[in-house]
Amino acid sequence: MHTSRPIEVQGRFLGVAVAHAAAWRFIATDPVVEDIDGATFPSPAEAERVAGLVIGRNSGLPVRRPVR
C-alpha cells in the first residue's frame, strides 16, 4: 500500500504526493500544475511549496502560504 498526501494551495486541490522509494512523487490532478507532474520531492511540504510557485508563475499573482 502506498502512502499519499493531498497537495492543496489556498484551498485548491492540485494533486497528491505519493511515497516513492526515498522521495515523494507528485501526481497532478489540476492542469495548472501539469509542468511538475511526476516530479519527485524530499517531502510533501516541498511539493506543496513548488506547486504554489507554479500557480503563482502561471497566474502572475503572488501565492500566500498558510501559516503552520
Give structural notes.
With 68 residues, the protein is of the alpha+beta class. It has one domain (4-59). The chain is built from one helix and four strands, in the order ββββα. A four-stranded antiparallel beta sheet has the order 1-2-3-4, with helices on one face.
Distance between the termini: 28 Å
Spans of at least 5 consecutive residues with low confidence: none
Structural class: alpha+beta
What number is the mean pLDDT? 89
Radius of gyration, taken over Cα atoms and rounded to an integer in Å? 11 Å
Q: Strand order, biggest sheet?
A: 1-2-3-4
Q: How many separate domains make up the residues?
A: 1
Largest sheet: 4 strands, antiparallel
Strand fraction equals 25-35%
Compose a concise summary of this entry:
By secondary structure, this protein is α+β, with helices and mostly antiparallel strands. It has one domain (4-59).
Q: Which key phrases capture this entry?
A:
single chain, 4-stranded antiparallel beta sheet, 1 helix, 34% strand, globular
Write the layout of secondary structure elements.
Blueprint: E1 4-9, E2 12-20, E3 23-28, E4 40-41, H1 44-59
Antiparallel strand pairs: 1-2, 2-3, 3-4
